[in-house]
Amino acid sequence: MRTAGFSVRRDDWRVLTPAIDSADAAALPADALYLPGPTAHRIQAAKRSPARWSAPGRSLEPPLRRVVADLPTAQPSQEPI
To answer: Model-level pTM?
Structure first.
């Protein structure tokens, strides 16, 4: 991000522990991802795998990275109007 001109203010890692106790709960991570151009078959496969693993008392602990950055605004033009 810095090479693109952004000023990084925070770079944090978090681990969430959502309950994955049903097939519906297991499908949520696949629904939350943005993947350009996936086929319906690939989406269903991404949901089936964790659904087979889901059970009461189970959780998923994905590490997530959160980056907060600012893009400095352009300086006002010094040219006369």
So the answer is: 0.42
